[in-house]
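Run log, item B.
One chain of 226 residues. Sequence copied directly from the ordering sheet:
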Amino acid sequence: MVDLGLSNPVDSEPESEHEPFRLTLEMVLALTLGVLLIIGLLIGIGLLLFRGKGSGEQVAAGQSAVDFDIPTAREAYVPAVEVIRQWDAGAQLASAAGAWTPVINRAQLEAGRTGWTFHFYLPDSGQMATVVVDRGGGARVTDTQPWETPPALLSDMNWGVDSPQAISVLLDACGAVLENEPQAEVQARLSLAADNRRLLWQLQVLSAENEALCAVNVDGTTGQVR
């Protein structure tokens, strides 16, 4: 018999159609990493949604973010000086004043940011000038009045305490009063009158009837309560 090199189908073992599926170490690690990434993504989305909800509640409660375009007293002083010294290069600062009216934006109050009114004595013309710096930082002279007797003023070089620090002292002393008076107004005035013997922040909480409910004085150089 001639051998044709063919196997006898009866004697041969049938071949398996599919190899058994086995998880390798690399596949297990890849699957584990994928699951961890998905879990991390879900946690991140949850945190974003939670924070977004919290921010919405704060805005609804009037706790908006601070608007840094609105100036503090010291920031507003810069454009005020630039404007007034075009009138009189020797202009002297006499006072600065700002107010927060109902309904008070607590974030802006705590940051000491609002519009400001400055009074400058002009020795060349013997006048007292009013310079208003609005909430956008724009400065303009709004009024001048004859001032025959030069006022005794302290140097503005000693001004070291800005409105945020002064307001912080006010809130420590008068915070409870302010919480109980939703229609209250806060006023802050920096005086450079030499009679005070120091630069002096005079701060107060006023009722809707313009009655002083709480007041505090703060040294404009050291920040100490006076």
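Observations after the first pass:
- The longest helix spans residues 25-60.
- Residues 119 and 130 are 5 Å apart (CA to CA).
Flagged for discussion on Thursday.
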